Every structure is written in C-alpha cells, then in structure tokens.
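Handout, page 2. Input:
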Amino acid sequence: MNPVELKPGLAAQPGLHHGSKWINECIGPAAPAHVDLNRKRFGALEVLYTWMYCSGDQQFLYHQTSNLVYSVDHSPFLPAGPGGWTAELLDQSRGTVQKDPILGSLGLTPTDRQDALTALAAISDSDVALAVATPPSEWGLDKDDRLALAEYLFQRRELVLGVLG
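Output:
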C-alpha cells in the first residue's frame, strides 16, 4: 500500500493515527452540499463538531456516485486547534457550547440529529475515561491533560444534548 501524502515530506503510514478510514471514489474537500440527501449524516457531524468544538477547517468529502457526505481532517478540534489546546483552555471553554457555525447554518432539526444525540447520551463516563487514557505517552499527554480533557468532554456532552436536542 502506498502512503497517502499529507504534507510535503509527511506521509500517512499504517499504525496508530486519527482513526480514519479510506473511502474510494470521493471528491473534495468541499462545502456542505446535497443537504437533503445527507440530513442525518450532517446532523451527526453537527453533534460531533459541537461536542468537540471544531475550531475551523471543516472538510466534507462526497462519494462520486451516491453523493453521501463524509467528514475528513478532524485535527482542528478543541480550543486553539491542533496541538494548541491546554488544560487551562479546556477548563475555560468547557462550560460554553455553541452550534458549529458551518453546520448550524444548514437548518438541521432535532430529528436530523436524533440518532447522534442518542449515541452521545449513551457514551458513559467510563467510555470517556478510557478514550482519554488510551493515547500513548509519546503523544505528550500527562495525567493533568488527560483529566482536563475528560472533564471537558463530560461537561460538554450534557450541554450539547441540551443545545442540540
């Protein structure tokens, strides 16, 4: 398998990464399109982007035949974006939730988001704790960072359910 070129000199390799899955025959990135066909998919992305605070660079891919939307490049999540968040920034912003500005403009309804909201409500504190405990130490997350991230996700989960529900 040939690595996918991400940046000049930096190629994606097999192993532990962002959990992405390659989907053939997609085009983009592009702005939101085919909204009526993808209402539940955009609803799910709105829940994800709002919970994780997508700080910009929302990217959508579309399957060339079905026009189904996929989301790509989730690195700009959390306050201050990739590599910029700190425990202090998480603490300052965890109590404030606003709809994702890009997806919030699509006129999605609670029905469009219902499946994603049900899934978000089912995420337990233990699930969040496991997720923040899992990244390897090489990623530079110390105990305080992991605790701040878990608290951020716990509190925002409840707020997102209220704002988008």
